[in-house]
């Protein structure tokens, strides 16, 4: 029995380490994925801003040409004023002049707005480019870093699995099945030490007689509350009153 308990303790240590590696590895692709997503979002944002900037510039160019055309019209109407013969003609030309002036005023206002947008858009694009470059560098660095860590994890994992196979040799299949069942049900922890006369898993107090029996190690006891296997660990289980 002592032999079995010892083997199970070793198995639990290996499984705990494997679980830790798994947890670590589980987070690595997540981090890379997250950064990659951020980068894709930044790229899209930059493309949108560049598109907007381009449209503003285009509209400003068209607006400028239209403004010049309106100014040409205005000059034409103003010179016509000197050639009118009747009041009616005079009123008609004056009316045209007023409406062209209004049109030019609108276009001037729009042009100022567009120039402001172009200026702030240029700034935004520059800033986005700089922050995206930073993000890209971080992504590349972390990706390489995580890949390295993942490779290291894989090496440890192979080693541990090899150790596990060796630890399993000659173990009673029924006991092993019980161990596996408890481990799966109890978040990877099937074997727990007695800590201050209580179950190291769920803290349930143990009768002194039971503590003595666990310490002797002639029989494998399960915790009444959480069902984990209870063991004596010289470092962790010192009896205290
Ligand atoms: Zn317990």
Domains (count): 2
Percent helix range: over 70%
CATH class of the largest domain: Mainly Alpha
Order of helices and strands: HHHEEHEE
* Largest sheet report: 4 strands, mixed
How would you state the average pLDDT, rounded?
92
Principal-axes geometry comes out as rod-shaped
Strand order of the largest sheet: 2-1-4-3
Supply the helix-strand structural class: mainly alpha
Give the quaternary arrangement of the chains: single chain
Head-to-tail CA distance between termini: 28 Å
In words, what does this structure look like?
The structure is a single chain. This protein starts with a helix and ends in a 10-residue tail after the last strand. Strands 2-1-4-3 form a four-stranded mixed β-sheet. It is rod-shaped. It is built from four helices and four strands, in the order αααββαββ. It folds into two domains: 11-168, Orthogonal Bundle (Helix Hairpins); 173-231, no CATH class. It has helices spanning 2-81, 87-168, 173-185, 208-216; strands at 191-195, 198-199, 221-222, 229-231. The protein is mostly helical and 241 residues long. The mean pLDDT is 92. Zinc ion binds at residues 199, 201-202, 204, 223, 225-226, 228.
Task: Describe the secondary-structure layout.
Blueprint: H1 2-81, H2 87-168, H3 173-185, E1 191-195, E2 198-199, H4 208-216, E3 221-222, E4 229-231
Parallel strand pairs: 1-4
Antiparallel strand pairs: 1-2, 3-4
Helix pairs in contact: 1-2
The chain binds zinc ion.
């Amino acid at each position: 029995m002592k032999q079995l308990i010892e083997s199970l303790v070793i198995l639990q240590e290996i499984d705990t380490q494997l679980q830790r590696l798994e947890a670590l590895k589980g987070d690595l692709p997540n981090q890379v994925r997250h950064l990659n997503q951020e980068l894709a979002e930044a790229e899209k944002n930059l493309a949108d801003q560049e598109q907007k900037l381009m449209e503003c510039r285009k509209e400003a160019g068209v607006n400028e040409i239209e403004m010049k055309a309106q100014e040409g019209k205005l000059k034409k109407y103003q010179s016509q004023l000197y050639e009118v013969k009747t009041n009616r003609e005079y009123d008609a030309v004056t009316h045209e002049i007023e409406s062209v002036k209004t049109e030019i005023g609108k276009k001037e206002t729009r042009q100022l707005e567009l120039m402001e947008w172009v200026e702030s858009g240029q700034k935004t694009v520059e800033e986005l480019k700089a922050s995206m470059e930073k993000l890209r560098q971080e992504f590349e660095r972390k990706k390489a870093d995580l890949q390295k860590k993942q490779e290291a994890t894989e090496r440890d994992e192979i080693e541990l699995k090899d150790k596990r196979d060796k630890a399993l040799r000659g173990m009673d299949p029924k006991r092993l099945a019980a161990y596996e069942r408890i481990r799966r049900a109890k978040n990877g922890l099937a074997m727990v030490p007695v800590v201050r006369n209580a179950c190291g898993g769920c803290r349930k107090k143990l009768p002194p007689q039971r503590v003595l029996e666990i310490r002797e190690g002639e029989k494998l006891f399960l915790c009444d509350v959480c069902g984990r296997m209870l063991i004596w660990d010289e470092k962790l289980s010192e009896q205290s009153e």
